[in-house]
Every structure is written in C-alpha cells, then in structure tokens.
Design goal:
about 170 residues, alpha+beta, Aminopeptidase, 7-stranded mixed beta sheet, about 30% strand, globular
Length: about 170
C-alpha cells in the first residue's frame, strides 16, 4: 500500500468509486452518476483551492480509496475550516483503509494550517461515525430529514475535529 496525491490519471477509478456510492448508498446525497467531465471539473476545483486528493493504491497501482477536503462555507471567517470526505472501493471496504486515509486527511489539514475538520455523515452510517470517533471527532449536530433518497428521508450527523493549527490565526484585515 502506498499513499499518493491523486491526479487525472485516476479519473476512471475515482468515477467508479463515487458512482458506486451514489447508486448504492447514502454516503453521497446525489441521484445521478457523475461523468468524466464532472470529475475533471472536480479536480480543477481541488487544484484551484489547493485541496489535496489523497489516494491509497496497492502494488498494482489500483486505487483502493481516496479522501479529500474542500471549502466548508464561502465566508472569509470560515477560512480555517474544511469539510472532508473519504471513499473506499467497494471491494476493499472493511480492511482498515479508511483509517489510513482519515489520518492522511488530518495530517494534510494540519500541514495547511486548518483548524477544524468537519464531516457530514448520514445518520445511519455507523461505520463512518465510529471511524471518526476513533480519531477524536466529536458529534456536534444532527439535521433531521435534510435529504431524500431511495424513497425515504435522510438525517445528517455532523462531526468535527479541532486541530492545533494555525499557531497564529489571522482575522479581519
């Protein structure tokens, strides 16, 4: 296993992992599968914002999963907060790869001087919630019936992890 910074070389594999989550789970509150153009635009947004796309590959260069983060909210006072996500290839879930990727997301956020990582997790996704709690994330809210998918209302739980960075935050100018 090796941690990498994903680029467009992994578009097909990222597309497969995203679309599996869209079609078969409530990990993403999307209805329609993503297209290669959407992934290209997604990569461009990540690059523009200097947000990493962290991948985990095996010895055959197969993408086992990936994680990333991005803007939490548009207002300037939120500049030290990012919302993250991570996804594991369906054939490789339950092997501990989420732990590896979540630690890398935390490390990257610290290295970029962020202060707060936010996770929005479907309220029924106990595996993801337990993973985040293992890393020190705290439950900080539950939004009732904010999504509708697979013929039912979905509740969204929010978790956050406060990081020791930045050492000298800058506020208003």
């Amino acid at each position: 296993m090796q941690i990498i910074q994903c680029d467009q070389q992994y578009t097909t594999e990222i597309l497969f992992i995203f679309n599996d989550a869209i079609l078969h789970s409530t990990a993403l509150y999307d209805y329609e599968p993503r297209t290669p153009k959407m992934i290209d635009d997604w990569f461009a947004t990540k690059q523009k914002g200097n947000y990493p796309v962290i991948g985990l590959i095996n010895d055959n260069n197969q993408l086992l999963g990936f994680g990333t983060y991005g803007i939490f909210r548009e207002r300037p006072a939120y500049k030290y907060t990012v919302e993250h996500s991570l996804y594991i290839h369906p054939e490789h879930r339950g092997k501990g790869y989420g732990k590896v990727l979540l630690q890398e997301i935390i490390n990257a956020a610290i290295s970029q001087d962020y202060h707060c990582l936010v996770a929005g997790i479907d309220a029924e996704n106990d595996i993801s919630k337990k993973l985040h709690i293992q890393f020190g994330f705290k439950a900080c809210g539950n939004l009732k019936e904010v999504g509708f998918k697979f013929g039912r209302w979905l509740n969204l739980d929010f978790f956050q992890l406060l990081l020791p960075t930045p050492i000298h935050p800058i506020g208003e100018m």
